[in-house]
Amino acid sequence: MPNPTFRALRGDRSPAEFAAAVRRAAREIGERVSCDARYIGRVEAGEIRCPNYAYERVFRHMFPGRDLTDLGFTPRQAVRGRPARATTPTTTPEQPGHTAPGPEPEESDVLRRAFMTGGPAAVAALGPLWPVPAAARPGPAPVRAGEPEIAAVEQAVRTIRLVDDRHGAHGIYRRAGESLHHAHCLLDAGVRRQDLGDRLHRGAGELALSVGWLAHDSGRFADARSYYAEALATARMSGDPALEAHAFCNTAFLAGDAGRHREAVRAAQAGQQAARGLPSDQLRALLALREAGGWAGLGDRRGCEQALARAASLFDRGPGTEEPEWMSFFGPAEYAWLEAQCWSALDDWPRAVHSARQAVQLQEPHFVRNRALFTAALAGGLARGGRPEEAAAAGLGTLDLLTQVGSARITGMLTATARRLRPYAAGSAEVGEFLSRMELPDAAHG
Q: Where does this protein have compositionally biased stretches of type Low complexity (predicted)?
């Protein structure tokens, strides 16, 4: 039966144009789908009754608030349990061009549903992200890792990023670390082919960076530094410049947050060197922004502005066709936020507030953690700029968002803003409300 609902969502775009929009949306949330005009045609013709989980996440990202039935698909529970042709690989009903011996295990379905819905179920499902593989079990002759184990490492990275985007680092750091431990076991056991070894090293390095970021965002700077160094060592040993550039990018970010601004500059410059041969102007733009932040932390306005100019030139070229998967977060909102950080470090509060406000306005609603981060930065800039009521309003907005995400970093930013606003509590009901919700005493109470 045809799917007229999905056809209506395509509108006046051609199947090829709509497929391109699907691929762009996938990159935004860290998914990878090989969508083309043929796939769109099969969906509209009703040949695909229910998309696989990756496509479902992408479609729900493109059309917020709609479930599968709202998109014209058959509910998943109605198509589950179809007989599998176990002896002959077949093209799955959900995604053409990929072979599979049969339906996915029920445990995988449970994990994926948990991560799609988020909340406590997502946190509970996160550790470990896959059963301990045979290669990780003790014994005299461990089985070498193959395609399924390596694919699990790669999926773990995507899952952690997705949960972090929706819920922040709070509560998932330890479980993500357990997943990294399993990846280490796979590395120790070895692989069957060189190409699989390259993928495993890259996946383990990206997983170390993801766990390091969770530590970073949770205020565990020493742990984050260790994980980032591990990823950098993995990149160097495997000769992977993309992973090396990513590791230096995160290291520069951490160094800036820890007040080691000279190190931030050096790490960002090293990252730019590693990225020279990569087909990504956006990555080089991000690294230039990291360098600008380091110069700003050192109080070097000229160095900061030069790096910002390079970043702007690179960013304006737009994304290419081979942007790193992990960079799906980097768009106009993130760019404005990083600019705001530079102006804040240089005590240029009008520019800092302007850029932070742009970041809040440009950030897409589903990235709840970033919305909270940018709004907290706006509150801080307004407070430092002598606009206490506006700062309190932004702070209250951030607190509302923190009911959906957990981040020690954002909470710390709000605490600093609250302390700066205490002298204004007596003359402003909004400031008083903000301080009350932060559970900090106002000026009248010391």
A: 84-93
Q: Name the more confident of 427 and 274.
A: 274
pTM of the model: 0.65
User: Does the pLDDT at position 196 exceed 80?
Assistant: yes
| Residues 6 or more apart in contact with residue 87 via CB below 8 angstroms | none
Measured CA to CA, the distance from residue 276 to residue 241 in angstroms comes to: 9
Say how many residues make up the chain: 446
Q: What b-and-e string marks burial along 17-49, b requiring 16 or more CB atoms within 10 Å of the CB?
A: ebbebbbebbbbbbbebebbeebbeebbeeebb
Q: How far apart are CA 105 and CA 415, in angstroms?
A: 45
Q: 248-275, pLDDT tens digit by residue?
A: 999 999 999 999 999 999 999 999 999 9
The Cα 278–Cα 322 span in angstroms is 9
C-alpha span between 89 and 99 (Å, rounded): 6
